From TrEMBL:
Occurrences of domain HTH lacI-type (ranges): 1-36
GO molecular function: DNA-binding transcription factor activity; transcription cis-regulatory region binding
Name assigned to this protein: HTH lacI-type domain-containing protein
Pfam families assigned to the protein according to its UniProt record, in alphabetical order: Peripla_BP_1
Cross-referenced InterPro entries: HTH_LacI, Lambda_DNA-bd_dom_sf, Peripla_BP/Lac1_sug-bd_dom, Peripla_BP_I
C-alpha cells in the first residue's frame, strides 16, 4: 500500500497509510532502490534552461513523471558539449533509472556509449541520422515550410534565414523546409540570404545587423527561434525600419513572450509540454521492460499568425 501498488484495494491502502502516518513511517528510498533495483528517478539533460522553450518542455516532463511516481533530477549543459558529457556521467553516478537528453549537437559518441551500456534513454527534440534511438521530436521540415510559405504569401520573395548550426538536426530540417517552400513557389534559393550560427537573442541581433549592412535587399526574415527573432526586432528598429511594413518576420517555438511583443510575433507553435510528456512515456516503457524495439514519435507543428 505504501508503495502504491495497483493490486491492493483503496480501502486497505487508506488503512495502511493511516497507521504508517501515526507511527511516523518514512519510506526509505535507498532501501527501495536496493530491493527493486530502481531509484524512481529520471535524469534530464537540458541544453539551455535560460530558454523558455526548454522550461515548457521540462514542465511537461515533470508533470508526466510525477503522475507515474517518478522524480526528475536536472542537469543544465548551457549548450556546451563537454558539460553534456559531464552531466550524463553525474546523473548515472546518481543511479537514475533512465535519461532524457536534449543534445547540444548531433554527435553520437555519448549516445553509442549509452546503448552499449544498456542504459534506458530518450533523445528529446531531435533525432540522430546514423543511430537508431528512441526519440521524440518536432516536424521541423513542415515548420520551416510553413514559416517561409507564410512570408511568401504576404508577397515576400527575398527571405533571409537566420538559422542554427547545421550539425543540429532541427536546423537542418528548418533549412530543408525553407528550401522546399521557395521551390514550390518558384523562388530561387540564394545562399547569401542564409546566416548560420548560435541561437540566442544576442546572436539574432548581431546576424540580422550583419545581413542588413550587406545590402542584400531582403524584405523578410525567418528566424530559427523566437529568441533570435527578438534580437532581429531590435536590429531592424535600429536601422529605422518598421515591422512588418518594411521587413516581415517569423519566429519559431511560440514561447510565451511572443504574444507580448510589439508587434506580436508570428511564429511556429511547437507542442512543448507534449514533447516533454511523450518523452517520459517513451522512457518509462523502456525502463519497465514493456518495449524492446526502437520507437520514434514526431509531433505536429502549426503556424500562429500575429502581427509581424
Amino acid at each position: 500500500a505504501i508503495n502504491n501498488k495497483p493490486d491492493i484495494n483503496e480501502e486497505t491502502k487508506k488503512k495502511v497509510l493511516k497507521v504508517a502516518q501515526e507511527l511516523g513511517y518514512v519510506r526509505n528510498a535507498t532501501a527501495v532502490a536496493l530491493r527493486t533495483r530502481k531509484t524512481g528517478t529520471i535524469g534530464v539533460v537540458i541544453a539551455d534552461n535560460r530558454n523558455p522553450f526548454y522550461a515548457e518542455v521540462l514542465n511537461g516532463m515533470e508533470v508526466a513523471a510525477s503522475g507515474k511516481n517518478y522524480h526528475i533530477i536536472l542537469a543544465n549543459t548551457q549548450r556546451d558539449y563537454k558539460k553534456e558529457e559531464e552531466a550524463i556521467n553525474l546523473l548515472l553516478a546518481k543511479r537514475v533509472d533512465g535519461l532524457l537528453i536534449t543534445p547540444v549537437q548531433d554527435r553520437d559518441d555519448d549516445i553509442k556509449n549509452l546503448i552499449e551500456a544498456n542504459i534506458p534513454f530518450v533523445v528529446v527534440g531531435r533525432d540522430f541520422e546514423n543511430i537508431e534511438v528512441d526519440a521524440v521530436y518536432n516536424d521541423e521540415i513542415k515548420g520551416g515550410f510553413l514559416a517561409t510559405e507564410n512570408l511568401i504569401k504576404k508577397g515576400h520573395k527575398r527571405i533571409a534565414l537566420i538559422n542554427g548550426f547545421l550539425h543540429k538536426s532541427p536546423a537542418k530540417g528548418r533549412l530543408e523546409g525553407y528550401k522546399n517552400a521557395l521551390k514550390k513557389y518558384g523562388i530561387p534559393f540564394d545562399d547569401a540570404l542564409v546566416s548560420v550560427g548560435d541561437i540566442d537573442v544576442k546572436d539574432g541581433y548581431e546576424r540580422t545587423k550583419q545581413l542588413l549592412e550587406k545590402g542584400l535587399n531582403f524584405t523578410a526574415i525567418f528566424a530559427y527561434n523566437d529568441m533570435m527573432a527578438f534580437g532581429s526586432m531590435q536590429a531592424i528598429r535600429e536601422k529605422g525600419l518598421r515591422i512588418p511594413q518594411d521587413i516581415g518576420l517569423v519566429g519559431y517555438d511560440d514561447i510565451p513572450f511572443s504574444s507580448l511583443m510589439n508587434p506580436t510575433l508570428t511564429t511556429i507553435r511547437l507542442q512543448k509540454q507534449e514533447l516533454g510528456a511523450e518523452s517520459v512515456t517513451l522512457l518509462l516503457s523502456r525502463i519497465n521492460g514493456k518495449r524492446k524495439e526502437i520507437k520514434k514519435k514526431m509531433l505536429d507543428v502549426e503556424l500562429i499568425t500575429r502581427g509581424t
